[in-house]
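=== RUN LOG ===
request id: a7f3
mode: sequence -> structure
chains: 1
length: 130
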Amino acid sequence: MNTLTRVNYFSKSEVRIRANRIRRREIVRRQRIVLVAIITVLLSIIISFGASIMIKAQNNDVEPMVKYYTVTVVHSGDTLESLAKKHYSEEHYSSFEAYINEIMKINRLDAPEELKAGENIVIPYYDIYK
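=== RESULT ===
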């Protein structure tokens, strides 16, 4: 049975109904494609807008402080307190004693008096990120 006789098999209204159904499916398919495209564009706009807000929210006036370490040679007459005073920062330590304790811990010292001339000692300090 070829398609011409098959078309003749259906009435004109059935052929029209079938053609309308195919057209509606095509319209719905196009509408879905447009909807997905619109949603994609809106999401990209929202994401870029949110990113720009977050970038603007960062304050450029704040300079980040970072903890650094320096190695210092102990000279005769140097004490742990005299070396620590050069790098101590009140805003980063609760007290000068806490800073001394950290230096002792880093250098594995049991007492501040254990320093000897000629030794190297590691001292932490804070400075602006470079």
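=== NOTES ===
The chain has a mean pLDDT of 86.
The first helix runs from residue 3 to 9.
=== END ===
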